[in-house]
Amino acid sequence: MSLAAVRLGPKVGGVLAGTPIVLGPGYFFMIREQSDSFVADAALGSLHAMLATLIFCLSYVLLAKRLGAFASVACSAFIWILASAIADQLPGGVLLALALFGVTLLFSRVYINSIGLSSKTVSAPVRWGDLLVRGVLAGGVVCLATILLVNVDPAISGIVLSFPIGMLTIALTLHQRYGVEVARVTLANTQLGMLSLVAFCAVLSVSIELLPSGFAFWLSLFLSLFVSTFLWGFSRLEDSRRAVYKS
User: Fold this and answer.
1) DSSP state of 49
2) CB of 184 within 8 A of CB of 117?
3) pLDDT at residue 77 above 70?
4) What is the spatial distance between Cα 120 and Cα 135, in angstroms, rounded to a whole number?
5) Cβ(166)–Cβ(21) under 8 Å?
6) Which DSSP state fits 18?
7) For the residues 164-189, what does the mean pLDDT come to?
């Protein structure tokens, strides 16, 4: 996902970053260790945390032009913690969480489109040390949520599992190496890709207690990847129409 964000451009990178590369492994192990009701509540917690992650991306886009790389990422992470704590207290279930996410996404996209971020591909060498660090951090989040926090509230496990560690490290690296605008546009495009994560969490939360746990997990993963594929195809179609219009 990190390579895609750099090599294939922010649109494709944003869509791919929305695939459940951390949530998938996390829930794969959680399902084998916990009850279906625990997983359902954790997935709902993850769904609530998607709202906080949306705010994280928007916060970074707003702050990065005024602050340095570390300051903007740190402030955005702090805002994520506050937003996830508030989101965890929201009443209602999956439908309300989906409605709130949809309204917030619409507001965020309207604002981001209004500021006219440029979209460009960065030609840069692969830095395997960066990828190793991101992989270790993502694995640490999975271990924390599925092993160390299993005796806490399941929603807390789901929220921690949804911490945007990948987005955080990608934003920091892009900001430092390729400039603030590259980092901003990548995080902005990640918002739309998050629909894949939302689909994964929503389907898993609803289906885990109705279907065999293994089937519910693979169904959630399949629908998540279907959403990512649809977003990728829609992006390609949009680019093709724009090219035809320019010609």
Assistant:
1) H
2) yes
3) yes
4) 25
5) yes
6) T
7) 77
The pTM score is 0.79
Greatest distance between any 2 Cα atoms in the chain: 60
Burial 139-167 (b: 16+ CB within 10 A, else e): eebbeebbeebeeeebbbbbbbbbbbbbb
Q: Are 180 and 164 in contact (CB under 8 A)?
A: no
Radius of gyration over alpha carbons of the chain, in Å? 18
Copy the structure tokens of residue 57: 């991306």
Q: pLDDT digits over 5-48, tens only?
A: 566 666 666 677 777 877 888 888 888 888 888 888 888 888 88
pLDDT above 70 as % of the chain: 73
**Nearest-5° angle of CA 203, CA 205, CA 208?**
90
Q: How far is CA 8 from CA 85, 97, 116, 134, in A?
A: 34, 32, 20, 19
Cα separation, 10 vs 182, whole angstroms: 8
CB-based burial, 32-41: b 16+ in 10 Å, e otherwise: eebebebbbb
**Which tokens belong to 95?**
């439908």
